[in-house]
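ok so heres the complex, three chains, lmk if somethin looks off
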Amino acid sequence: MASTISKPTSPLAVIVAVIGAALFGIVFYLRSIEVSWYVLLPLIAAYLAAAFFIFRRDGGLGGVSNPKDFYTGVLLLAVCGVFAAGLVELPLGRIARPGPAFFPLMLLGLLFIFSIAILINGLRTKGEALTAVPWRGLIIITGMTVFFGATIKGLGFIPAIVVTAFVSCLATRQWNMVSAVSTAAILAIFSWAIFIWGLGLPIALCGTWLRTLLISLGVAGESIPFCY
Amino acid sequence: MGFLADFFSGMGANLALGFSQAVTLDNLFYCFVGVLLGTAIGVLPGLGPIATIALLLPITFKLDPVSALIMLSGIYYGAQYGGSTTAILINLPGETSSVVTAIDGHQMAKKGKAGLALFTSAVGSFFAGTVATFLIVGFAPLLASAALKFSPADYFSLMVMGFVAAVVLAQGSLVKAMAMIVLGLLISMVGPSESGAPRFTFDNPEFFDGFDFVALSMGIFGIGEIIRNLEDDTKREAIKSKFFDLIPTKAELKEMIPPILRGTTVGSVLGILPGGGAILGAFAAYSLEKRLSKTPQDFGKGKLAGVAAPESANNAGAQVSFIPMLTLGIPSNPVMALMLGALIIHRIVPGPTLVTDRPELFWGVVSSMWIGNFMLLVLNLPLIGMWVKFLTIPYRLLFPGIVTICCIGVYSVSNNPFDVHTMAACGVIGYVLFKLECEPAPLLLGFVIGRLMEQYFTRAMQLSFGDATVFVREPISASLLAVSAIALVLVLLPAIRKKREEAFAE
Amino acid sequence: MRKWLIAGAGILALGISGASAQNFPTRSVTMMIPFAAGGPTDTVGRLVAESMSKSLGQQVIVENAAGAGGTRAPGLVVKAAPDGYTILLHHIGMSTAPTLYRKLAYNVLNDFEFVGLVTDAPMSLIARPGLEAKDLKGVLEYIAKTKEKTSYANAGIGSASHLCGMLLQAAVKQQFNTINFNGTGPAMTDILGDRVDLMCDQTTNTTGQIKGGKVKAYGVTTKTRVKSLPDLPTLDQAGLKGFEVAVWHGIYAPKGTPKEVVAKLTQALQAALKDPKVIQAFAELGTEPVPQDQATGAALQAKLKAEIEKWRPLIQAAGQFAD
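and the predicted structre for the whole thing:
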């Protein structure tokens, strides 16, 4: 698992990565003072181009000796940037009457120190390399969760569950049609029995989009059972 | 000696009155309905005791106040039992307290010891519940007035100590654990500030209420765990677990008893504090076990003590948090606030006079707690067999179910699609944290405590007119900070020494 | 158990919409409360909701939408469909929000239909047990001596205790060290623990503590004494001439709710205020229902207008804005 280090990290590449983290906060700040995306997008594109160029020339960050720590540091710095951008307009108050920015500013200072410490640790110690990411699973699972949230009101309880459950089955390469269809069916019945029948949750079984569709197709009248 | 005799005879009379109230057919029935319902909503992700009790309040109008309170408290501690089941089986903590149980409990389940983990959790909770009941019977008024001594500065320092406990709990890098706590604290700042003005919302109305704990926890733990399991996309064998595995061996029994005792103590002590001490119980108990253990490196890999201690602490804390509510009329968490509301609707004014004005109510409810805990034990032990069976479902069929139920559960909390989207984002975050070897438990602790901590800090500053030395001047606060400092040094020392040894070796 | 839950939740899975104003209500009505469950406003709401359910023939479900100093729930109700199925119960804070919050997402006078007033809850001035003052005179002397170091607890900006505090500061012409708490419970903890000097809160919250002798009590804020606390003088009698504040509660519906529906809600409210159970429970809380002629939309609208004007100069003088 542990990778051997072929080449020392290029200082320039590290600087580029840290600027990248800071850029995150800068973009948030500029958005909060309503700078247009037309200005921001070229800025981001310019940064990405420069980063690509420098990473190619210097062998990128592949040589970071402890990537797990290094990337933690970079990500946390980006988070610091976002919160710093959000902090700008908040009143600080004074120590006898701390304002809404007071406590977060203390936290931000701490997080910044920790981020730098972790980042430096990532450059100075040896650690394991990152392993492969299961992109298929990650995208399908996250995507279906987003899908469920986006359609639960429109499609309604049963359709949202059936689609979410069925597509989620595809997240593993071990799937097959029969089990995916039956999983979706069983889950729809099971969830209905527990959440709607048992607990009486106020979720429409078929949602507003379906209702409008059914009415406009003339399939049903104004009042359709289970649609509200 | 006379004092002790008086004490015990008084206690006996109180308990007799209490049991005569609780052991009526009606009240036993309501107690049973409460714990059964509590277990059910505890097992299901999402809908927690707060939502359920709020839904059931209108029903309790029609009941006798004693029965109403017995049923509502049954839901409350029943949910604590049920919550650990999902945490252990599928790494899905729906309550703050089960976040810690999930760490070792789920690892045990992966090793085929789900039965034993659930058994430990049930027995630990029952024991803690029993002790807590007796604590309430014997010392409620005394403990309550002691708890009032805690000033905002003391609470702030208590939370700092909780964070040190969470750092100790971490298996990997200490700096990363500390960073995770601060990250959790910062995330909790998103939403309305104390004055109601929005903070860190970037003008996005969805952020105005902040993030929901259930969405965060189920995303980072539940969804994150699924993505992580999909890394190994080969045909995986279902975990084999037999029913009889739940009965512990003599060695396991021996291993389980001391953590249960210590966990109960820690949970009871912290649970008395009305300002959110109970949240820290499970974390503190786990860290204590890890510190005392001869094999701290086994924690996080399915150690029995890692389930026994936080589960006992958690249940003891839940039960003891009735003390400030019943004796002072101060709710220590939203569930207790609801119970106060239920009392007021029954025209009972909660406050320091409750115990003397309505002894049958006070002692009846307290006695019913013990009965309820016993019912939970009887109810849960046979259920363990069923839960363990659940794990024999092949994973490729199981995970779509977990994803779907998580979605419904999170949505049901407040019928808000944004919570589901928060969960999706947190799933990715949870996976990234796993990849980068950052631990999520300290992050969640920070998130839960963030707002409280800010309030205590602000109040301590306002009360002292901006004098920050108040944290070291007040005796309770100073000793808590000293304990935290010592604990932190003790944890850091081996790490530093190890580094030096490594340096010498090179 | 299932039936219970459904009845309890009042959720009729088959509740079919498309109902007209004549047969309102055909499904459950949601009453939004801007404060957390278990608090005094919630209690008033739940008592009234329970009784209104009886006369409406449908469940009135209480939903707590706490947050943003009590301005979150009205914001939600304004956006709800104006069909009478979503209503709002709010207290005095409805009249102070327009001044406290300069960026309010709704207009309290124009965005609502008015159902009626509910009750005027008295407040009482209490102090930590260690405060030496025996009566209100003693308190005034204490304030004169400690000046801006006098600490005053409230349950959060926009809460009744916050408003009473502002009124008190104006009456004694002295700024306090105001400590904002997140709800009455935490505030009471620091009063009981002898750390904060004063608090003025609804009798709902203070009666138990006063009767138990755990706090010092100096007076009630209404014109007349409160039945549940007969020994307590009014602040006006005790020396703060003209000091009067009561936490009035009103029920609102979103603008555009049909007149017949609002009328039905008003009728249900009036019936609830005649319900002996409600009267008894209110008495226990130290309050009583408003007279029937006050439980009307017109009375509520007039009260709201008057109260907005009453509080605006006070809040502006105190320079306390929430945002």
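quick notes: The first strand of chain A starts at residue 93 and ends at 94. thats all i got rn
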